[in-house]
Amino acid sequence: MKNLWDPKVALQFEENTLQLRVYTSRLLGQNSDLVLHGGGNTSVKLQQANLFGEEEDILYVKGSGNNLATIDADGFTPLLLKTLRKLAELENISDAEMIRQQQMAMSNPDAPNPSVEALLHAIIPFTWIDHTHADAVVTLTNTPDGNELIRKIYGERLLVIPYVMPGFKLARKVVEITKQVDWRKFEGMVLLNHGIFSFGDTARESYGRMIELVSMAENYLAKNSTVSKTTAKGPLPEMNANEPQSIRLDPDYFLGKEELLKLACIRRKVSEIRGSAMLAQLNFGTEACTFANLTNVKEIATRGPITSDHLIRTKPAPAIIDLENPQQSLDNFSAAYEAYFERNTNGEQRCLDSAPRWAVWPGHGTVAFGDDLTESGIISDIVEHTVKAIQLAENLVGERSSGGWQPVSEEHLFEAEYWELQQAKLKQKIIHQEEQKAIQEFQGKIAIVSGAASGIGLACARELLSQGAVVVGLDVNPEITTIFCESGMLGLQCDVTDQKAVLDAVAEAVRQFGGIDILVLNAGTFPAGQTIEEMDERTWTRSLEINLTAPQQLLQACVPFLKEGLDPAVVFMASRNVPAPGAGASAYSVPKAGQTQLARIAALELGKFGIRVNILHPDCVYDTGLWTPDALERSAKRYGLTVEQYKSRNILKIDVKTKEVARMVCAMVGAVFAKTTGAQIPIDGGSERVI
Fold first, then answer.
1. CB proximity list for 514: less than 8 A, separation 6 or greater
2. pLDDT for the residue 638
3. Using CB atoms within 10 A as the burial measure, which of 109, 214, 228, 414 is most buried?
4. pLDDT at 527
């Protein structure tokens, strides 16, 4: 493990202790082998004058919910050290009372709630304290001989504390163990099955000790674990701790249609169990696939997580997908989780949803489930580290250990998962999710939009994204890959007239996110106006190919996955020219009319699968690439109008914006049109010829 301390950077904070605390916290937080998504915490003790000019000893500790990778000074909570130390001397209080008392000890009431481990930082008599859930250290302690291994590696350099769930009990345990201990003899402390602390009189000393101590654990594993490194293509890509990662695509990895349909089926079943739409992100990297193919994977993967800190994200264990009957294996997981709850509850807790947060799919890898990319990305990252840790522990051999993955007991797992403080966090999270769903109707849903690089297609993609969907945009324009640059958007260059390209794009969408729920068939072309007599063959053929055959091909490719979708819906982007064609526009109007007929038949055929198919007839939408100045001039000329007269030729004398069309699309694929299929809806400012 590399020591990232930069003396020149640190010198900038020589006169600002809290900013130095921020600096070293971020050094720890950017290393995912030390800290994952909000885990770990850091602190510093200093003296500050209060309003009355009195000097007080203050503990600045990471505020709850803050991420060490991105934390700033406002992310630390100032607490009166004297009060915390008195609190730690109490024999017994509930964790809820501990949090209340800590809040009362805050010298700044506007600061975030303090870490649940603030008391632990208070009783350790060092100025600088760092705490991480370092993979290597926790891997070693999650073995039958973990205690002995730690003592063998570190000798007398570290205090070793048996597992106790974080909170007041842990603080009291440390107080009791260290009553007669000279803290100055130690450089840090290991909490078995939980993590490691380092401390020192300076920021550099504490940080340096953390890096050195964790490196010792990593070196031990490297020498004593027989996990094969010969099958790996190289080291895992570096993860940016600031941002949950999308699944890393391997161009050589292939999932056939049957496997993709199984993935969509798995996602749908998990969503049904949880009661809301979920994404399913498949990790098919070398390490994940190696793990999924182990003969004993079902036994070792379900023993427990690296640390109980991950339970709120991952639940105690993954689902193991049965290759022949994926749905039954997920039902079995749900039943087993409910039985786990009944075995351990004291009758006061309320059972959480019984859906898995990740799964092992033998032969394919691991799958992370989340109601948005942030959640599934975090879970995917945690699973990567979990898979690696389990394999290292299982293959650990040496003088004092035969290895084996052995996290804490089921009773301890339940205690941590249903901890009163975690329950309170989950309650707030559920409230937040419900509020978000009121705004983001399509959270957890997956949409494909064709012709998405500009105009109506791009507006539809952005509107769906703003309402919670992940959106796959298809367009022949190669810039689609950069246009779709926001999180939750995947741009794929695709000529929708090329059947193979369409099949590949649909497969990629499912491989990335787990299925398809929404399809917006928007790709089209607006050929130059020609009468039937003067029509050239290329114009006619090309328009039929893009405006009729292409949507048929894309719909055909998506139907099997829409059948596995969640409240699946399709919108065809037709035209006002269908009910009210104009002279000189046969090359455009005829395929759009055929597209409308195709949509009507699709509504008849797909209704029995719960797939809604509706048609939108836009007109007077001039903020698109189709309506170039030349195109406007040509169309106006056909009607004997000026461009301005042409643009205001509808009844309401207004033009229609792409964003307004996009909002109508979202209404049609959402709850407003939940019981409508086969409908043709105009959005054209009112056409006299149609009415």
1. 263, 264, 266, 267, 278, 279, 280, 281, 282, 367, 446
2. 79
3. 214
4. 87
For the chain, the domains span 7-224, 257-436, 446-622+657-683
Q: Report the alpha-carbon angle 386-434-263, nearest 5.
A: 45
| Alpha helix (H) residue ranges in 583-676 | 586-606, 629-638, 643-647, 658-669
Intervals of the chain under pLDDT 50: 228-252
pLDDT for residue 241: 36
Model pTM score: 0.90
CATH for 446-622+657-683?
3.40.50.720
Q: In the structure encoding, which two tokens stand for residue 386, read together?
A: 């979990």
Class of domain 7-224: alpha beta
**Alpha-carbon distance 682 to 670, whole Å?**
17
3-state secondary structure of 509: helix
In this structure, what DSSP letter does residue 546 have? I
Cβ–Cβ contacts within 10 Å for residue 6, how many? 11
Say yes or no: do domains 7-224 and 257-436 share a fold: yes
Query: Which residues carry out catalysis?
Result: 588
Structural tokens at position 466:
């703003």
Interval 633-654: pLDDT, tens: 887 887 889 998 888 889 999 9
The torsion of the CA quartet 52, 58, 61, 65, rounded to 10 degrees, works out to -20
In 547-618, where do the E strands start and end? 569-573, 612-618
- pLDDT at residue number 14: 87
In this structure, whether the domain defined by 257-436 belongs to CATH 3.50.70 is answered with: no
Convert the pLDDT of each residue in 406-463 to its tens digit: 999 999 999 999 988 777 666 666 666 666 666 789 999 999 999 999 999 999 999 9
Q: What residues pair up with 42 in beta bridges, in sequence order?
A: 130
Q: What are phi and psi of 334, to 5 degrees?
A: -60, -45
